[in-house]
Amino acid sequence: MFITFSITIIISSFFVISVYNTVHSAFFLILSFFNGSCLLILSGSDFLGFLFIIIYVGAISVLFLFVIIILNLNQFDFSQKHIKLDSPSYLFYIFLFSCGFLSFVYIIFIMLTWPAYDQAIPTLYLLNYIQIIDSVNNVNTFSQILYSYYFFYLLLSGVILLTAMVGSVYLTLNKVSFFQKVSKFQQVHNQISRISSASISIIRYKNHYDL
Q: Which domains are delineated in the chain?
């Protein structure tokens, strides 16, 4: 099951960046998140697995789909190749992909050539280190560590999210000043109290109207 979920994550992640249709790319992203959650549940971290499903699959991916659907993607021409083969960004992407691929091959080579690999795998599956260290479940352990040792970072993340929410609401507000609101109505007092020296008059000069 571990190998199946891992291969599915790799394939779906590849299709996320290679599929032409953005909606299909978002669906492959949801599939990647779902398989990652299954890996966490399979490894014993059921709380984090369900949390990933609720947050990433249930909220962020649905938001991605909503944004993609409301966008007018027809105005963008994706058929043209704007990236040249000799561009620095293209070479940088090739370098990153090569480093990741070589690291993956090196890890596989070390695992296959490790002399104690066959003897260590059965012991890893037979021993349950969570029950040896503590008898509580992972939800209690996660809560104790988070709210005991990392409560400051939890509060800081809450303040950052609150600031982002307030900033987004402020940017979307229709900024109308008090003077703009007042100018929409008739200001009778100002119209009566005005004097001729401070007013604008129209003077006819050579068959033209000049101010």
A: 1-73 (1.20.120.1200)
Instruction: Give the global pTM.
Output: 0.44
- When pLDDT is cut at 50, 70 and 90, the band that residue 123 belongs to is very low
Closest CA to 55 of 189, 209, 161, 170: 161
Report the distance separating Cα 64 and Cα 28, nearest Å: 12
| Nearby residues of 176 by Cβ (< 8 Å), 6 or more positions away | none
**Among 59, 1, 6, which Cα is nearest to 30's?**
59
Please report, in angstroms and rounded to a whole number, the separation of the first and last CA atoms in the chain.
Answer: 84
Spatial CA neighbour of 32 closest among 47, 46, 43, 16:
16
Q: For residues 49 and 37, what is the distance between their CA atoms, to the nearest angstrom?
A: 4
Beta strand segments in the chain, E? 203-205, 208-210
